[in-house]
Amino acid sequence: MKKNNSICMRLFYYGYGLALIFTLSSCTKDYIDPSRALNEEALSSSQALTDISIGLQRTYSYLRTSNIYNKVTANGFVTNELLLRNEGNIPELQLSTGGSTVDGTNTVLAGLWTSSNKIIYDANLVIQNARKLADKNRASGIIAYTTVLKALSLGDLAMNWEQVPATVGRNASFVDRMEGYRMAISSVDSALLFTETDSISNAFLQDIPAASIDIKNTLYALKARYSLYIGDYEEALSAASQVDLKKVSVFAYDNVSPNPIYTFATSTNNVFQPKDEHLGLPEALYPDPNDQRVLFYIENANPAPPAVRIKGFWFTNESPIPVYLPGEMLLIKAEAYARTSRLDLALIELNKVITKRPNDDVYGLGAAMPGLTGPYSEEELLTLIYKHRCIELFMSGLKLEDMRRFNRPQTEMKRNFFPYPFVERDNNANTPADPAF
Fold first, then answer.
1. Where does residue 296 rank: exposed (0-12), middle (13-18), buried (19+ CB within 10 A)?
2. How many CB atoms lie within 10 A of CB 356?
3. Rounded to whole angstroms, how far apart are CA atoms 156 and 339?
4. Residues 6 or more apart from 16 whose CB is under 8 A from it?
5. pTM for this structure?
6. Fewer CB in a 10 Å sphere around the end CB: N or C, the chain?
7. What are phi and psi of 300, to 5 degrees?
8. Could you give the CA distance from residue 352 to residue 106 in angstroms, rounded to a whole number?
């Protein structure tokens, strides 16, 4: 515990120090800016680059300003996973209401947008300078670890907005969100190439927070996820097959740096809770009463309101949140096979999820039900895959993308894409028009 607390305190100082460095170095003067030398010195040190990359993980995963809190919250409300507990939380109220109520003032969306772009910007600097390090094995680790956070941030933008910035900077141009996924995949491919050329040093792995993120498995998992989203099914299959489903990859928390969903929702019962015991699914897709995943994710709190409360990966302040789930990889393969008319193979992969027992899953997540026998049409099989993605990946922040990809009725969602935050629109003339819905 002492080691974890020490790391958490380091995360605070590294994040603060990075913010200070880039704030100072943004000043433009006619004479030599002494902070510029500090910036260059920091970015040429392997330990400083390691520290900065650790700070990016903190930005992504800790506090109410993090991607973790904001993407789970935004996605959860507009896809009917979550129930609002207090209308005094105005940003969450907007998302819970949906439609045109959600606008550019929403601080949940502004937080997700700002955090993602900051991580991408800082990650690019870290990766660029890590390439120059003499210790190639540490450089490989820094690049690969930082790329995990960069790819996640690119993906979060592409999942929630129609267009994403092509670069990070003043008056950045925008590209279609599918290009955002391709940028994430390209960055992952580059990082994987580094790790194949120069293996990640053990010294680097000991420096990152409790070695909680399995770097190579996570890179392959993200490549599989985003390849599926752009319709590159063969690449999705290949990447998902590279992921060791027995390895854990999580954002770790403790008493110093607690789980943000637990801190602001579970423990307070003030912001949100799960919508219902059906995980917010329409009646035709209700989970089976014997599906053990439901009581993994929720607990029945009757008679005390609300009737359903958060459990799963957000049950305590120390609950780790997975970067990806083994079941996601199986469902990626099932969907990729189904969309390429290999229905028998799709059903095999889907049944691996349905029959998986809690003891057979590294996180204890399993439906433990009999397998399906079929036969099913492609449409029927895809509907079943969607249903089990909604259950297996509950409150993961991925459901809105799934709803689009599976052509779910708009009546099942409260937004399709999000409006661009005013923090971007007010400072970038290239910001696109907001989507109608």
1. buried
2. 22
3. 24
4. none
5. 0.91
6. N
7. -85, 120
8. 40
* Residue 170 confidence class, pLDDT cut points 50, 70, 90: confident
Q: Which tokens hold the place of 378?
A: 């492609």
Question: CA 282 to CA 412: how far, in whole Å?
Answer: 8
| Phi and psi, residue 298, nearest 5° | -135, 160
> What does the pLDDT average to over 221-248?
98
Q: At what angle do helices 107-130 and 67-78 cross, to 10 degrees?
A: 140
The CA-based angle 229-350-359, given to 5 degrees, is 110
Place of tokens 């141009």: 173
Using the predicted structure, report yes or no on whether residue 420 has a pLDDT greater than 50: yes
The DSSP code for 190 is: H
- Map tokens 């700002």 to a residue: 114
Mean pLDDT score across all residues of the chain:
91
Specify the pLDDT at position 300.
85
